[in-house]
Amino acid sequence: MGRVLPLDGCIGGDPQSQRVALVRASVPDDAEAGTLAALFRLLGDVRRTKILYALLEAGELCVCDISAAVQVPEASVSQTMRLLRASGVVDNRREGRRVYYRLADAHVRMLLDVCREHTGHEGSR
Amino acid sequence: MGRVLPLDGCIGGDPQSQRVALVRASVPDDAEAGTLAALFRLLGDVRRTKILYALLEAGELCVCDISAAVQVPEASVSQTMRLLRASGVVDNRREGRRVYYRLADAHVRMLLDVCREHTGHEGSR
DNA sequence: TCCTCATCTGCGCGGATCTTCAGATAACGT
DNA sequence: ACGTTATCTGAAGATCCGCGCAGATGAGGA
Question: Residue A89's closest chain B neighbor by CA?
Answer without folding.
Answer: B118
